[in-house]
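Friendly challenge for the regulars: who can give me the structure tokens for this chain first? No prize, just bragging rights.
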Amino acid sequence: MSGHLLKNCAAVIVDDGTGPVVHRQVDLLTEGPAIKAIGKDLGARTMPAGTEVKDATGWFVYPGLVNTHHHFFQCFVRNHADLDWTALSVIEWLDRIYPIFSRLTEDCFYHSSVTAMAELIKHGCTTAFDHQYNFPRHAGKRLVDRQFEAADLFGMRFHAGRGGNTLPKSEGSTIPDEMLETTDEFIADCARLIDVYHDASSFSMRQVVVSPCQPVNSYRETFVESVALARDKGVFLHTHVGEGESPVMEARHGLRTVDYLEEMGFAGPDTFYAHCWELTHDELARMAASGTGVSHCPEPVYLVGAEVTDLPAMAALGVRVGLGCDGAASNDNSNLMHCLHSAYMLQCLAASSRKHPVPPPAEFLAYGTTGGASLLGRKDIGRLAPGMAADLFAIDTRRMDYVGTRHDPLGLIPRVGVGSVTDMTMINGRIVWQNGEFAGLDEGKLFADAEAALASVTI
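First reply, four minutes later:
Bragging rights claimed.
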């Protein structure tokens, strides 16, 4: 099996399972999909035949980032003046944007996935979870299949969240009829995708998560059946929680969202919720006790959060936390590295009003790596150590951007921020991006094809 030897790395973030430690002036050797060794002066005696040697002088090497919440299909509505949140109420915005989503074609879903994955990889993300809840009737049922196709194109590690909505607008949801499914339709397609794609083995590149969109837009039976299917198939569960909907849920069902979901078993170490910025201390404590995780999406907080998510309280209670970009309807980029910086800075902004101190910058790097791996139930990704998946990215710090910052590689991304793309991104032992190019792909053609698909939809 061939591999890569990164020689003379300025810093490698190594974690043997006890926490990250910066190793300076070391080599990193991969073999096949895994890391074989990290140490000084690795050479001919340790290298498998066919190993490619790369000069990594000046490089900071990080574990690949793990994105735990996104909506790839929303990439086609980015930076659109007519959809500016600041000019619309939430209801006005939903009424305007969902009809656009309902017009997307199968090709749109494919090319928007290509678009999001490309940006993620350029900025160090090696594993992506996408919450694909939009299934317009005319687009058919093979939309997640096309996402796996896009992931294969790049060689990206992909967890597909098969979402869906079942409650009609006439009964209180915000979803157009064109985007609705029955519970039976939703569950049947989740089961099909699990049977076809889900791979629970080490270094798996494809997994499926049962992910009904959100409790306010689906019948109770949809969530009950989701729990039954996921537990029967041994896969994870995901949904939106704590985005301001709890008062609606309480008025409708007599329970806030966390109570509603816990009552039916949609909670536990195989479950993670997105957002959670409006949750009470008691709700967070119960989530910590059950092992339910949180995908914190910091950048949408700028637009749609009534308050900054209380990560220090979550940390104090022991809630598992990962990071997500969220969809381009509430974050106009797919740059998880930028989210690390945003997450840290938002917590600093809110620190004076909080009971608990802001976690150190290195903890935010952990949210984007080991934290994300934990949410997805992965023990083979999220950190750099022998035997772990060779998922990593490298930044050449021999630039003016990094003068004065190089003493603390752990804090660099959360505290300083990195504005440029990586110099290299590796997934499962394969270099998928380096020197400004995707391996074996023509970015110009990918761009042109995505733009053509976008042009086919009237916004």
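The two ends are 49 Å apart (CA to CA). The first strand starts at residue 4 and ends at 15. Your move, everyone else.
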